[in-house]
């Protein structure tokens, strides 16, 4: 039986670790990360870091040469309509930041998946494994819909309390943005959730029995077990390069 891909491993509740890397990292730096055997995918930021479409293609090409999946955080929640366009540039997954509304999730899901699961447009020579999978439209669409990873990032009290509503079909993970979440916690001084860990526990509980997992940025790696014990299965960590 073929080895499970990243999406399938996440869905099965396996412990999966992503490496937080930069768009400017060279192939040799990325090779060091991938060949360490410690990480299951590469994560790169488009929200707080400069990038262009060309630089994203080039980064994904370097990762593709190492057969490494790239998770890309888009610049803004309002850019969810661009998810399909960004996927055409090579990422294997998308993280949407600062999600609070079901309408944001619906839009991201629509443009992430090909019909009949979504409404992503067909095309793009830089897409993940498009050459390997061949040019058959229906065949690639089916493959992608069972391969790509979609994350919604929770960064506020309203997002945390509404987590179950945001865990819609097609959403693989609800991820945490701890720093922005703390701003929201501080803005709600009488809320029962007093820290990020309270929020993580609540979301894990809310997602029990669903197909959506929880992802946490647990820098450094020594903090991982703390969140494993809470029920988190997907982690983002910073490798030493």
Gap between N and C termini: 34 Å
β-strand percent reads 15-25%
The overall pLDDT average reads 95
Q: What is the C-level CATH assignment? A: Alpha Beta
CATH architecture descriptor text: Alpha-Beta Barrel
Largest β-sheet summary? 8 strands, parallel, barrel
CATH topology: TIM Barrel
Total beta strand runs: 8
Adjacency order of strands in the biggest sheet: 1-2-3-4-5-6-7-8
* Approximate helicity band: 25-40%
> Low-confidence parts, pLDDT < 50 over ≥5 residues?
none
Task: Assign the CATH superfamily.
Answer: Phosphoenolpyruvate-binding domains
Could you characterize what this model shows?
With 241 residues, this protein is an alpha/beta fold. The protein has one domain: Phosphoenolpyruvate-binding domains (TIM Barrel). The protein is built from twelve helices and eight strands. The chain has helices spanning 6-11, 27-35, 53-64, 83-87, 102-112, 130-133, 137-145, 157-161, 163-166, 178-187, 196-206, 224-228; strands at residues 16-20, 41-45, 70-73, 93-96, 149-154, 173-176, 213-217, 234-237. An eight-stranded parallel β-barrel has the order 1-2-3-4-5-6-7-8. α4 (83-87) links the parallel β3 and β4. The chain starts with 5 loop residues before the first helix and ends with a strand.
Characteristic terms for this protein:
8-stranded parallel β-barrel, 241 residues, 15% strand, 12 helices, TIM Barrel, alpha/beta, single chain
